[in-house]
Amino acid sequence: MKSVKVFLSLLPLFALVSCGKGAPLSREDYSDSESGETAERVSDLKEEDYPLFPAKFARHLGALSSYKAVTKGQTKAHVLIVDATQSIDVTLIKGEYSFLKNESHGDYANTFHESYFHGEEALLRDSASSEFSKKPLSEYKDTYGVYPFDPSIEGYSIGEGMVRTVEKVDSEVGYAFKMVFEPKKATNNARIQMKKFGGLDDYPSFSKIHITVTVQDDYSPISTHVEASYKAKKLVESDCHQTYDVTYSDINGTVEPPNLAEIREQYQF
Asked: Is 61 helix (H, G, I), strand (E, B) or coil?
């Protein structure tokens, strides 16, 4: 039987994002320096306030000066009568100079995307052998849909009506919250990114997005687990189920993108 080539995995969508070198602050230290008010704690959340967790988490994530997030997972796809698996491998670094590398490999597709970010500029390439091109950050967002450091969770929108339910679940460490997203409303930007990165014939159509975020009491992220189901079309339509895990480190610590000195010198970045 002739093989059918179809993009299967597509990258995980960012939020993108530890416990590590930057230890969490104590309740006394973790406060607003101007007002002196103690910052919010996860342990203070009442059950009726669980729907506020996505925004609180995204806000805390955006306020971090630096972190590293490493994603590992896979997408299993059913194409006609063929089942296939595609790997997911992503490294994300936030700092004065930020970095994203996203790779996916499998029997039917191999994809690559690498970007550096600084201020309102981005360097990017979609092939490991190609040169980087410099673009305004606004153009990057228009082209790829998802900017890793915008307020979202793994690239899925968290505004009103985007998250169906939020529940606290058991966790061996920290505090874990499982969120069920509204597939049609929360994926506007994610769909753009997946179509672009995967070279799809059309935007993917989601039917399920479940994300569990585990945090420390000060909202510092420990891990994220994502399960998503969607249909993707490249020549033919495939049913895809994606699962991946993100682990976080170096919160507010010292972390630098790879080859940064050479990149800055070569591209005047």
From this structure: helix
